[in-house]
Specification:
The chain is mostly helical and 411 residues long. It has 17 helices and no strands. Pfam families: MFS_1. Keywords: Cell membrane, Membrane, Transmembrane, Transmembrane helix, Transport.
Length: 411
C-alpha cells in the first residue's frame, strides 16, 4: 500500500514494490519516530532563557508557548486519535513526521510569541498523530507480549522527552544556538521519513468501505468498557500528575535549577531538566511486580517532588539531583503498571482510540497546572511558586497512593 492509498483507505495495489521489513525493523522504526518527534518537541527546554532574551518573553510567555504545544497535542488526540485504526499506522506516522518538520522550522525562525506558539502547536500536532499510532503499532507487532509492547511505548516516549533537553543543550553550543538544534533535528526527521515511506505497510485494522468511508475519521466521543473503566481512570490520573511534574521540568525548571546549582551552562541545565524524565524512561526496563508496586511508587513520587521544591531553600544541588531521580523512578514504575493494566483490557480494534484518550488527560497535566505555575511566578517569584507547586503535586501523589493502596488491599 502507498501512503496516499492508505490516506484514502483504498486497498493495496497488487504487486507494488515495498520494503518488507522484519518485525524487529518495524519495532525499531515505530519507536524511533515517536522518540525523535518528542526529542524535537523538547529541544527548546534549555534554550528558553536565550529565547526570552532574543524575543523578550516573560515567564508567563514561556508557559504559554509551552502549553500551546500541549493543547494542540490534546486537540489532535481528541479529534484524530483513532485515525490510525483506519488509515493504518504507517500513514499516520508519515503525516506526523511531515507536520513535525514544518513545526520545527517555524519554531527555529520565530521572532514573536505568536510564531513561537505556532511552531510549538505544530510540534504538538505531530506528536498527537504519532502517539496512538506508534502505541498501537508496537502492540500489534508484539501480540503475545503486551507488557513489552507497553514498555517499549513508554520507553520511547519518556526517553524522547528526557533526551530532548540534554540534546538541545549540547546542540546549543553550535553557532546560532536557538536555530541550529532544530535544523539538525529536521535532518534526522528527513532521514527517518525515507524508510517509513518505503515500508511495505500492513493493512489497517479497520479500513472503512463505501462511498462515505471518510466518515469513520470524524471525531468520536470517548467511551471505555466497564471492565476497563477503573484502570482507565487510575492511568489517566497518574498520567495527569506525572505530566504536571514533567511540564514544570520542561518549561520553568531550567531557571529554577540554575539558581540551585549556581550555573548557567546550557548543557548542564538541559541534563538536569531531563534527569526526572530519564529516570522515568530507565524505570521501564525494570521488571518490578506486586500488588503494592503502584501505591509505593506513587508515594516515592510524592515525597521526591516535595524535596525538589525544598532543594533551593536548602541550596542543595545533590538533593535536587537525588530527588529528581527518585521522582522519575517512582513515576515511571507507577505509570507503567497502570498503563499496562488499561492497555491489556482494551480490544485491539479500539486500542489507538482508548490509549489516545488516556494521553488526552495525561497531557493536559502539562498545560493547565503549568500555566497556573507561570501566573504564580509572576505574582510570588520563582522560588515561592515552585515550592507551592511541588507541595501540591506531592500531596496529589500521596492521595493517589492512598487510593491505589485501598484498591490493592481490597483485591
Amino acid at each position: 500500500m502507498t501512503v496516499l492509498s492508505e490516506l484514502r483507505m483504498r486497498p493495496a495495489t497488487a504487486g507494488r514494490w515495498g520494503w518488507d521489513a522484519s518485525t524487529t525493523a518495524r519495532l525499531v522504526l515505530a519507536g524511533v519516530v515517536i522518540f525523535t518527534l518528542l526529542v524535537g518537541a523538547n529541544l527548546a527546554t534549555p534554550l528558553y532563557p536565550l529565547l526570552q532574551a532574543r524575543i523578550g518573553l516573560s515567564s508567563l510567555d514561556v508557559t504559554v508557548a509551552f502549553s500551546s504545544y500541549v493543547l494542540a497535542l490534546v486537540a489532535v488526540l481528541m479529534v484524530a486519535g483513532h485515525w490510525s485504526d483506519h488509515i493504518g499506522r504507517r500513514a499516520a506516522l508519515v503525516l506526523a513526521v511531515l507536520v513535525g518538520l514544518v513545526g520545527g522550522v517555524i519554531f527555529a525562525n520565530a521572532d514573536s510569541l505568536l510564531a513561537l506558539s505556532a511552531g510549538r502547536a505544530l510540534q504538538g500536532v505531530a506528536v498527537g498523530l504519532a502517539t496512538g499510532a506508534s502505541s498501537a503499532a508496537l502492540r500489534e507487532l508484539l501480540p503475545q507480549r503486551p507488557d513489552w509492547a507497553s514498555r517499549f511505548t513508554l520507553l520511547s516516549s519518556a526517553g524522547g522527552v528526557a533526551a530532548g533537553p540534554a540534546i538541545g543543550g549540547l546542540l546549543s553550543l553550535l553557532p546560532d544556538p536557538t536555530r541550529t538544534p532544530f535544523y539538525v533535528h529536521s535532518a534526522v526527521l528527513l532521514a527517518a521519513l525515507i524508510p517509513l515511506w518505503l515500508l511495505k505497510a500492513r493493512p489497517a485494522i479497520a479500513p472503512a468501505e463505501g462511498p462515505k468511508a471518510h466518515r469513520v475519521l470524524a471525531p468520536r466521543k470517548p467511551s471505555i468498557s466497564k471492565d476497563a473503566s477503573g484502570a482507565f481512570w487510575m492511568a489517566a490520573a497518574t498520567g495527569f500528575l506525572s505530566f504536571a511534574v514533567f511540564g514544570f521540568c520542561l518549561s520553568l525548571a531550567p531557571g529554577y535549577f540554575a539558581t540551585v546549582v549556581h550555573a548557567d551552562s546550557r548543557p548542564l541545565i538541559g541534563v538536569l531538566a531531563g534527569v526526572t524524565l530519564g529516570a522515568s524512561a530507565l524505570s521501564q526496563l525494570l521488571g518490578v511486580r506486586g500488588r503494592l508496586v503502584v501505591p509505593v511508587a506513587l508515594a516515592v513520587l510524592g515525597v521526591s517532588v516535595v524535596l525538589v521544591g525544598a532543594a533551593a531553600a536548602w541550596s542543595s544541588p545533590w538533593l535536587l539531583v537525588a530527588a529528581s531521580i527518585t521522582a522519575g523512578m517512582g513515576q515511571g514504575i507507577a505509570f507503567r503498571q497502570v498503563f499496562n493494566e488499561v492497555a491489556g483490557k482494551v480490544e485491539a480494534a479500539r486500542h489507538a482510540q482508548v490509549i489516545s484518550t488516556v494521553y488526552v488527560i495525561t497531557y493536559l497535566g502539562s498545560a493547565v497546572p503549568v500555566i497556573g505555575l507561570g501566573i504564580a511566578v509572576t505574582a510570588l517569584g520563582l522560588q515561592a511558586a515552585v515550592v507551592g507547586f511541588t507541595a501540591l503535586c506531592g500531596l496529589a501523589a500521596l492521595t493517589l497512593a492512598a487510593v491505589s493502596m485501598k484498591g490493592a488491599l481490597r483485591d
